[in-house]
């Protein structure tokens, strides 16, 4: 068992401490902010708030040299030499924020890289996500494996009403179930290329549809029940929708550490060489055999 990396632990402490604040702020931030992010997508007030809180918390961690966010054009310098003792942290502050209005699950995605960004997923030293579901959980993957924690605010009796946050490990060795049960495929069916459509028709006959519109929630179902999640290449968007640095890479790292596989349709997601931190990539992730069948289907 490798000793936990103190900087990685401090990053996920900061993410866990911020999660209840983000969750508590969501009811008042279900409206569009009126701005677009670097990916050209409209940003919700909740996205901006989560980005602000997480940016402050993560850049304050000793050992974090650079910070990248879905909501910010360029990397934020956090004062460390990335790759030479300091890490670069990439986040999706609020994944699935279109679920805010419909009150469905959403989350926060975190990748901790040991190289300046943009970098490949092979430079990840840890990754994780917070899931704002009926309860708040955090999945963390590092060299020693994958664990699931419950994140709770604790009221402590001091006079300023300050409240601590507790992290309780509920699954110390999270593994992808061998037998696949669920699938979730994003995008509109008419926009799927023919080869993916043929593959999807096979999977529909074998598994149960579970698609909630937030990658974190949909991937968490795959990690819980076994199966496959995809946001595929689309006819008019051959790079798909998800961003490599702060969506696909961290999810691929987590699922592969849990015994699964992740592909862009041709190669392991973690080997995809990005040009920019907002590069998009098709993502097919989960059960190894199903991912292999997908790569053959797209051949
Ligand atoms: P984000 O809210 O960070 O932009 O991410 C949304 C992504 C991802 O969470 C999800 O898998 C996908 O968008 C859903 O896209 P569709 O609405 O096209 O299904
Ligand atoms: Mn997202
Ligand atoms: Mn987002």
TrEMBL record:
Its EC number is 3.1.3.11. Pfam families: FBPase, FBPase_C. Coiled coil: none annotated. Transmembrane segments: none annotated. GO terms for cellular component: cytoplasm. It is found in: Cytoplasm. GO terms for biological process: fructose 1,6-bisphosphate metabolic process; fructose 6-phosphate metabolic process; fructose metabolic process; gluconeogenesis; sucrose biosynthetic process. It comes from the Archaea. Keywords: Carbohydrate metabolism, Cytoplasm, Hydrolase, Magnesium, Metal-binding. NCBIfam families: PRK09293.3-3 (NF006786). This is Fructose-1,6-bisphosphatase class 1. It comes from Halorubrum aidingense JCM 13560. The gene is fbp.
């Amino acid at each position: 068992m490798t000793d936990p990396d103190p900087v990685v632990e401090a990053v996920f402490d900061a993410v866990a401490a911020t999660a209840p604040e983000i969750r508590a702020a969501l009811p008042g931030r279900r409206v569009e902010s009126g701005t677009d992010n670097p990916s050209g997508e409209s940003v919700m007030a909740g996205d901006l708030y989560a980005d602000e809180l997480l940016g402050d918390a993560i850049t304050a961690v000793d050992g974090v040299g650079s910070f990248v966010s879905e909501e910010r054009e360029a990397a934020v310098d956090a004062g460390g030499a990335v790759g030479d003792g300091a890490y670069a942290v990439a986040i999706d502050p609020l994944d699935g924020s279109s679920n805010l209005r419909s009150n469905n699950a959403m989350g926060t995605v975190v990748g901790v890289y040991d190289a300046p960004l943009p970098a490949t997923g092979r430079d990840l030293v840890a990754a994780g996500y917070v899931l704002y579901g009926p309860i708040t959980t955090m999945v963390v993957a590092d060299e020693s494996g994958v664990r699931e924690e419950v994140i709770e605010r604790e009221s402590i009796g001091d006079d300023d009403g300050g409240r601590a946050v507790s992290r309780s490990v509920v699954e110390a060795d999270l593994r992808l179930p061998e037998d696949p049960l669920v699938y979730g495929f994003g995008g509109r069916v008419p926009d799927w290329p023919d080869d993916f459509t043929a593959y999807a028709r096979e999977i529909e006959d074998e598994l149960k549809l579970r698609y909630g519109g937030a990658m974190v929630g949909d991937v968490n179902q795959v990690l819980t029940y076994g199966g496959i999640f995809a946001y595929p290449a689309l006819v008019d968007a051959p790079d798909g929708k998800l961003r490599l640095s702060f969506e696909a890479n961290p999810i691929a790292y987590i699922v592969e550490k849990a015994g699964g596989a992740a592909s862009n349709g041709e190669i392991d997601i973690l080997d995809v060489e990005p040009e920019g931190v907002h590069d998009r990539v098709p993502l097919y992730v989960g059960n190894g055999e199903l991912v292999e069948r997908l790569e053959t289907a797209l051949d």
